[in-house]
User: What shape does this take?
Amino acid sequence: MVHNGQRFSLRSDGQLERLTFRRPTKIHAADVWELIAKCPQLDRNSLYCELLLCSDFADTCVLAERAGAVVGWLSAYRRPSEPATLFVWQIAVHPEIRNTGLGKGLIMSALKRRSCQHVTHIKATVTLSNPTSGLFFAALARDLGAPIQQALWFDRQAHFKGRYDSEYLLAIGPIECSP
Ligand SMILES: CC(C)(COP(=O)(O)OP(=O)(O)OC[C@H]1O[C@@H](n2cnc3c(N)ncnc32)[C@H](O)[C@@H]1OP(=O)(O)O)[C@@H](O)C(=O)NCCC(=O)NCCS
Assistant: This one.
């Protein structure tokens, strides 16, 4: 929710709280790691991996803070072979404040950065066992005025040796609306 140019989340008691979107630093990696632990839908990466994201990939990753606590996280990078594409790796919103626009806000915040000024497409992979992610990206595509396409990307048998569900690539773009 945006009010007078600032972002807010709606608390269960109906009060609005200020949210801050920022570039992460190494100091945030452990908090990100703990937030992801609250999202069983997501793979828990090593803390070292989160440290790399919060340092080497900080220009395209976004942290959401509420009263100093990390409540949202977007890990993303521009694809080396396709720099106009922002690849969204993980997106996590604290369970208590979902469905208040924070997830979309994280991506919009990344797209507004100088590091993403030439981004025309967003890609992400989803599993069919997590329908929320498909609905989320469909809503994002609608808001960005962009078509969305889906195709098998990492196959359960061929790539995961049967250990994980197949991942489908969602391609959103070209983006028509400014974020
Ligand atoms: C997926 C996730 C990041 C969405 O974050 P969020 O802040 O709740 O999403 P938003 O409030 O920005 O909602 C954006 C859109 O997605 C839709 N959406 C979000 N969660 C939904 C749900 N559980 N069921 C149906 N639609 C949902 C919203 O209705 C909204 O659509 P709208 O613009 O038409 O209103 C959050 O649910 C989450 O952290 N889930 C656990 C981690 C996960 O599964 N991540 C994978 C995503 S790739």
